[in-house]
Design goal:
heterodimer, A: about 500 residues, alpha+beta, five-stranded antiparallel beta sheet, two-stranded antiparallel ribbon, 14 helices, about 10% strand, rod-shaped, B: about 240 residues, alpha/beta, Rossmann fold, eight-stranded mixed beta sheet, globular
């Protein structure tokens, strides 16, 4: 107790002067402490395995919307809620680790990997793990997943949306192989995480659609709707038909009127032509035809050489020539005959036209009648359809809300499927080609400081314990404490 | 007695004696000036001198086995008293021929005191009348002859009475244990017991042992002399980083 009280000081708690004295008195402790520091440092620093690490900067790619306003060329970033804690939790998830393990096992260099934890110096070769598990795939996946868990970590980067993915291993090759696999796995995980909600929504919307359809089926809503749609289509086509009929009727009516007026005019002009001129014309035509016939016969007979001609032939030729002369006298002059013929041709043309007009008139009339008849029928049919539609409308009106809901759901399902199909990862791994750096788990300075602190602590305690245990006399203080009541005379003379 | 006084006294002596006196003086002066810690010597000497003035004249010195320190303390005091007083001093030790006293003892002349009526003598060596060196075994020899007699104490007292100051270089405790009765008898003549403590060596347990040992002889320790290690004897320690050393 006396020694303890010597160590304490009223103001400084510990009597540092005494401690300094003790350090000088027990100087061996100091050198032992120095040796201990060096030994402890060397042991702890060089016992650590060399760790190979690849640090991949990761950036959260913000969801952005491109404005339709051309003045805003830069996309507007939306706030992202991805935090390092959330990311850590999702990467610590065993499902993710197992997926990661599956990818690693599938790699062709799997057997060469050393999956030993960086915190220990124990090698853990994948080949050995495969041998241990044999054909048990699940065993291997679980083992690899548990080992991989210790080989990577994700930490907060310099800014809010930046992280640093660190992959560590005790072999350089392992780091090089597992880093790209890890990145791929994380990307897959992020996409799955983002798809999860959408998939759930798709499922939910699908269920709702099925339910709505079943209700509609039960209430014969589809039939009503189909009927209504058919009716509407029929009404529309019927209306179109009526319109066509109306237009055709109008055209035909105009045509009919025109034909009627022209026919009347033609009739009037042909009635005025005299019957006499008609007869004269017919006689001229008859003579003309006889003349042509005589000319042909004369020509035929004249082709026979006079030596070969018979007397009858000559007689016939003379008779024909006489007759021709007679006929030529009977025929009017060429001009009058041409005029007469033209007049007669015109009259014939007019007659032919009149018959054509008449035919067309009758056809047009019949057509008009048919069109009118068709129009009447179509009108009746349209009226019937409209009546049916009105009667069906009440039923369809009741279904309208359900139908709109169903249509909205179908549209939603479509957009969700589109979104799901186009889903991408929200993490961008910026630099995946950096070389693996070498380091030891605890730095030189860290271990040195730790060793020095520990040594100082132990040194202080060793001094304290030595002081408490040591009852040798070092000075007047000890004499006074050990030899109470004795007079301290002085020092022994030195010769 | 001052040095000048002594020289006057020895003027009447023969030439041979004068030469020897000069030799003795040189030796003593040499011892005196060999002492490196004069301040301590004067302090300690004055302390003892005051006790002498109070009537204490028999001073015993013991230690936990540091015989050399005991003898140095005795010799130092002798030098001090010789320099500053005219006391007749007796030095009683069990190691006169060894250690510090050896040189002086060799230069001393043999003398003896008659003891008792049976023709016993107590031999002593006188260093030119400065000090008388007496061996413990001289008393022991007489004690063994008169072990059951009261004459021993009387005869010893008679001899000691001739001196102004008696300085006892007490034997080591192991030696005392071998002759407890003799030392018990001798202890009656110690007026004061000073223990010599060696710095960095003597432990509290040893001190306790000494106290207990002498309390068995009915002697209480009265003072402590501190024996610090000789600086020149210490191996020089190189400074470590300029701090320690």
């Amino acid at each position: 107790m006396e020694k303890l009280s010597q160590l304490l000081n009223e103001t400084t708690i510990l009597d540092f002067k005494l401690l300094w004295k003790l350090s000088l008195r027990y100087s061996a402790h100091f050198f032992i402490a120095i040796a201990f520091t060096c030994g402890f440092f060397v042991y702890n620093y060089y016992q650590q395995p060399i760790i190979y690490a690849v640090n991949v900067p990761v950036k959260v790619v913000a969801n952005h919307t491109v404005s339709h306003d051309l003045s805003a060329l830069v996309p507007v970033d939306n706030a992202n809620l991805l935090t390092v804690s959330e990311l850590k939790i999702s990467l610590d998830n065993f499902t993710f680790l197992r997926e990661f393990a599956k990818h690693v096992i599938a790699d062709k260099s799997f057997d060469e990997l050393n999956l030993g934890a960086t915190s220990s110096i124990k090698n853990l070769y994948a080949k050995k793990m495969r041998q241990e598990c044999g054909a048990d795939k699940e065993c291997l996946e679980v083992k690899v997943a548990n080992s991989l868990k210790t080989l990577f970590s994700i930490d907060q980067g310099l800014t809010e949306n930046r992280f640093i993915l660190s992959v560590n291993a005790i072999e350089k090759k392992t780091v090089k192989i597992i880093t790209p696999i890890l990145i791929k796995s994380i990307e897959g995980n992020r996409v799955y995480a983002k798809q999860y909600l959408v998939l759930k929504e798709i499922q939910s919307v699908g269920n709702l659609i099925a339910e709505s359809r079943s209700i509609m089926q039960k209430m014969e809503g589809y039939q009503a709707l189909e009927e209504q749609e058919k009716l509407q289509t029929s009404i529309d086509s019927k209306k179109e038909e009526i319109k066509m009929l109306q237009s055709s009727t109008g055209q035909e009516l105009a045509n009919f009127k025109a034909l009627e007026s022209r026919l009347n005019e033609n009739k009037k002009s042909t009635q005025d032509r005299s019957v006499a001129s008609k007869d004269a014309y017919e006689s001229i035509v008859k003579n003309q035809m006889r003349l042509t016939e005589i000319n042909q016969n004369i020509y035929a007979l004249s082709n026979i050489t006079p030596e070969k001609r018979s007397s009858s032939d000559n007689l016939i030729i003379s008779q024909l020539t006489e007759e021709r002369e007679t006929l030529l006298k009977k025929l009017p002059s060429e001009r009058s005959r041409r005029n007469m013929m033209l007049s007669e041709n015109f009259a014939d043309g007019q007659r032919v036209k009149a018959s054509d007009f008449e035919f067309e008139y009758i056809v047009s009339k019949n057509k008009l009648e048919k069109l009118n008849e068709d129009f009447e029928i179509a009108k009746e049919e349209l009226d019937t359809m409209l009546e049916n539609k009105i009667s069906n409308e009440t039923k369809v009106a009741g279904m309208k809300t359900d139908l709109e809901f169903l249509r909205s759901l179908e549209a939603k399902l479509m957009s969700l499927k589109l979104l799901n199909a186009t889903m991408t990862t929200d993490l961008y791994f910026e630099d995946t080609s950096s070389n693996a750096s070498e380091f030891r788990q605890s730095s030189f300075m860290k271990i040195f400081m730790f060793s020095a602190s520990l040594t100082f602590f132990l040194y202080f305690f060793s001094l304290l314990i030595r002081f408490l245990m040591d009852d040798r006399i070092y000075g007047e203080e000890e004499i006074r404490s050990h030899l109470k009541g004795l007079h301290f005379i002085g020092e022994v003379p030195k010769f | 007695m001052s040095l000048a006084k002594k020289i006057v006294i020895i003027e009447d002596k023969t030439e041979k004696e004068v030469i020897r006196s000069d030799v003795s003086m040189d030796k003593l002066v040499g011892y005196f000036y060999k002492i490196s810690n004069h301040n301590e010597l004067f302090k300690v000497g004055n302390g003892f001198l005051k006790q002498v003035e109070k009537g204490v004249k028999s001073f015993a010195f013991t230690s936990a086995g540091y015989k050399n320190s005991q003898q140095k303390s005795v010799l130092g005091l002798c030098c001090f008293f010789d320099q500053n007083t005219n006391f007749k001093i007796a030095i009683i030790s069990d190691h006169l021929m060894h250690g510090v006293f050896n040189d002086l003892v060799e230069s001393s002349t043999q003398n003896s005191y008659p003891m008792g009526e049976e023709g016993d003598v107590l031999n002593y060596k006188s260093f030119y009348h400065h000090f008388d060196f007496i061996e413990y075994k001289e008393f022991q020899k007489f004690y063994e002859n008169h072990i059951y007699s009261k004459n021993f104490d009387a005869e010893v007292s008679k001899i000691l009475a001739q001196y102004d100051v008696i300085l006892w270089d007490i034997p080591e405790m192991e030696a005392m244990k071998k002759l407890p009765h003799f030392h018990s008898r001798m202890a009656h003549f110690y007026d004061s017991m000073t223990v010599i403590v060696a710095q960095n060596t003597t432990s509290g347990k040893q001190i306790e042992f000494i106290k207990k040992f002498f309390s068995n002889y009915n002697i209480n320790l009265s003072g402590v002399l501190f024996d610090t290690p000789d600086i020149e004897d210490k191996p020089k320690r190189k400074k470590f980083l300029g701090i320690f050393g």
